Amino acid sequence: MKESPGVVDLLGVLAYAELSAYARMTEDATTLAPSLADRAALSELAVTEYAHFRLLRDRLTEFGADPDEAMSPFVAALDAWHAQTRPADWLQALVKTYVGDGIALDFYREAARHLDPSIADLVDEVLVDEGRSQFAVEHVRAGIAADPVAGGRLALWARRLVGEALSQGQQVASARPELALLLVESAGEGATDISRLFARLTEAHGKRMAAMGI
Amino acid sequence: MKESPGVVDLLGVLAYAELSAYARMTEDATTLAPSLADRAALSELAVTEYAHFRLLRDRLTEFGADPDEAMSPFVAALDAWHAQTRPADWLQALVKTYVGDGIALDFYREAARHLDPSIADLVDEVLVDEGRSQFAVEHVRAGIAADPVAGGRLALWARRLVGEALSQGQQVASARPELALLLVESAGEGATDISRLFARLTEAHGKRMAAMGI
């Protein structure tokens, strides 16, 4: 099969993104959920992330790549992202799950857009929503209805998440040019295409914010 | 079906034991594993614990019990157990997974021994080993081979785990007499039967220690 040189990087960053999202969502569920039912609901989403990690790791192995080596260039940036965006309460945790991961997933999906269909399908499979959005949207809307001041705080929080995501993303892109190239190839040749790519990402982010009512 | 009054307690304590073991093993994997492969291996075991939690929670719901209410009497004792036995390194985490959970699981199995077969089968299913022992035994033996002094430290650690488990178990038993009754009924009527029960538990613990070579 035709393999773009950035493919192992893409699967590696995605695999570590899923593994670290699983760990972080588990921790948020355990320390921040207001009830055992909420804790179980967020844990359920975390376990789904782990299942996605497993698929990506196994695909890396099928490619003859060492999963640890493929993931390791991205550990520092993704750990830094989680350290910089540690939620202080349950609603912040849900906004992070939905908005923060949403932006990251949009980028991965764009990067996979013109790859071999077997890779693009795998990326689509691990990026499937699985009820995460609905869970976050319902709980965040209910939280803001109960405490309207929370809306303003969460809007600031979402802005910070976007800023941190772009900052870490930029570092990853400059350290891994082949991965960045996938995004540029996906966008097309010209500057107009790049700005269309950013317009798509911004629009998707705006839709998520609107869905939560913030 | 014939339901012993302690059954909801037994499924409740088991469900929270699985939910909290999942969270704790995920954290240990994330913070203590020496490699990404080890982190994934312990996370895999953690995710299995979550699947067991899901089975127990669903069975409680089928019984018409509220899972949150069934679990809540046991949250404090199990959280205290984890807080008192936070592993300081990877080998301590593995010994805790094997020895600490092993003792708890032996108690649950004894309590389920004379229950309705559909309950006893469910308890057997969620207590199945799933490779946890083999993973812990292999890694702990290798760790001691590489650093013989570690063996003595881990033996002390295992003793502390047993002490904390008995202390929390005693508190649970005195707060939930119907659950404690399941154990006594399982053992039989006389003092000899109770001492046989403890002999069985002690023997199982000794086997685990010997398997790890400590």
Automatic annotation (TrEMBL), chains A, B:
Domain of life per record: Bacteria
Record-annotated Ferritin-like domain positions: 6-185
Name the UniProt record assigns to this protein: Ferritin-like fold-containing protein
Species, as recorded: Nonomuraea marmarensis
